[in-house]
Specification:
8 helices
Length: 285
């Protein structure tokens, strides 16, 4: 099935991938060139894993997971396969987000810095908790064949809305974190004098913002939505098939109903003929 506005979609997709990839590269350059690199020793290099993993997993990979259903090259793949890819990407993002939290808490504890005092930390932790709940709900309800169809239909709008809400919250949290880090760390020259590190990291923030905007635009265009599979259409009770029966099976049920009605009509006609013959015999006698 051809996608409406395919060229526009392709241009936005390439732009989103490019901007997202640049966001990751800029984050690495920031911590490797302007900060003290990467390490795991409860010092500054360990903290630097926090922005790297957040931007890589919680921003970039989560963004790709959100739009994976929109890729027209995957429309021929089964919905179950795409659900698995969607869940797998979100699981990778969740693991990276958890490691990033471990890094920042370990750094704070090693430096005797208080935890969870800033708005950035509050919103960030809420985003991680909601993301884990979203992942567990998605796997248990939509990936595993355990939940009834009525429950899936009820929760799907909530799942879509909460996913976009969490992604937007992550973008806002990342921007708050970048600003907070610059204010605390860039002292000589001061951040308000626009030093090279400040300008470079502000550009990183703009890249993160543009990436989020592109993802939101792609995922909210109805013409780029994955078309429904023909065999996933549910027949209503008046359609002669039980709810949840696939298309070919539904046709089979329809044929069975039709055959049954024809058989019933033939049986009724035979009974009428027999009754007429008996009436004719009585009149002859």
């Amino acid at each position: 099935m051809a996608m409406e506005g395919y060229r526009g979609f392709l241009g936005l997709l390439v732009s989103a991938l490019l901007v997202g990839f640049l966001s990751v590269i800029f984050t690495l350059i920031w911590v490797l060139h302007y900060r003290e690199g990467l390490g795991w020793d409860a010092r500054e290099p360990e903290f630097n894993w926090h922005p790297v993993l957040v931007v890589t997993g919680f921003v970039f990979i989560q963004g790709i997971a959100i739009i994976v259903y929109r890729l027209p090259w995957t429309w021929k793949c089964s919905k179950l396969l795409m659900k698995g890819i969607h869940a797998g990407l979100n699981a990778v993002a969740a693991v990276l987000a958890i490691i990033s939290l471990v890094a920042v808490f370990d750094f704070h504890n090693g430096k005797n810095i208080p935890n969870m005092y800033s708005l950035h930390s509050w919103v960030g932790l809420i985003a991680v908790i909601l993301y884990m709940l979203q992942l567990l709900l998605g796997v248990s309800v939509f990936l595993l064949p355990l939940a009834p169809l009525s429950l899936r239909a009820l929760l799907m709008p909530i799942h879509v809305y909460s996913g976009l809400l969490i992604f937007g919250t992550v973008i806002a949290t990342a921007l708050m974190g970048v600003t907070e880090k610059l204010i605390f760390s860039v002292k000589n020259p001061a951040y308000n004098t626009l030093p090279p590190e400040g300008v470079f990291t502000n550009t990183l923030g703009l890249l993160i913002l543009v990436f989020g905007a592109l993802i939101f635009w792609i995922v909210t265009r109805p013409q780029w939505k994955r078309p429904k599979e023909p065999n996933s259409i549910l027949l209503q009770p008046n359609g002669g098939a039980p709810e949840g029966v696939d298309g070919p099976t539904a046709v089979h049920f329809g044929n069975m109903d039709k055959s049954d009605s024809e058989l019933n009509s033939e049986a009724a006609a035979r009974k009428r003929n027999i009754a007429l013959d008996e009436t004719g015999q009585r009149s002859t006698m």
